[in-house]
């Protein structure tokens, strides 16, 4: 079992506060639950530690698991199980967040000097040799609880108590802060693909300078932290890229990667 002592010191106090706040609400199984940052199995061994952030998760998690861990005073186990969700080939099954993972996987390969394009198609497992290069990064979201748009797309919004959701969303904002990831995982490089989020709120608690680059119509920040060696690239989510054939999709993804890499 992996050692989660460092991240536990950061996230367990937050989880305890969050669980205590939402426990009286008695939310149901269909309710969106909390997402906290995850790392792959070889993250600690990576020569360059990299995190990739999206807006929110498209996957469903059962909040009962978190509340049971809280009531059993076993939140460390919850953190361990959370990492287990990010296994080495999870992305081969991704459909809802396909554009995000296409960007992440191929950017990660490019940073390692591998220019071969990898698609997310389980049936065509022709790029198996690349899998070993894709188990050493971290994944996070700017929103710990899914936003309304995602819940509507997934058919969940109409099934939940909106008043309770608004309370849960507000209580979850203690997690919507990059500082926790910086302190827990000390990444060298962080990519944030979500121009819709408020960067000042997400970077709260950090001292930083911003370089606004003249690419992607200005939707591109390079952020340097004053008290940590971490560098942050903040730009658009790939959902805004042209849709169509897989060839058109791969060209758009590669073009975006070319721009990102040119600004590193």
What can you see in these coordinates?
- A seven-stranded mixed β-sheet has the order 1-3-2-4-7-6-5.
- It has 264 residues and is of the alpha/beta class.
- The chain starts with a helix and ends with a helix.
- It is built from nine helices and seven strands.
Q: Based on the structure given, which CATH architecture of the domain at 42-60 and 88-163 and 175-262 is correct? A: 3-Layer(aba) Sandwich
Mean pLDDT: 86
Helix and strand pattern: HEEHHHEHHHEHEEEH
Radius of gyration: 18 Å
Low-confidence stretches: none
Strand content: 5-15%
**How many distinct helices?**
9
Category by helix and strand content: alpha/beta
List the helices and strands and how they pair.
Elements: H1 5-22, E1 38-39, E2 50-54, H2 63-71, H3 75-84, H4 98-111, E3 138-141, H5 148-153, H6 162-171, H7 178-185, E4 189-193, H8 199-202, E5 208-212, E6 220-225, E7 231-235, H9 246-262
Parallel strand pairs: 2-3, 2-4, 4-7
Antiparallel strand pairs: 1-3, 5-6, 6-7
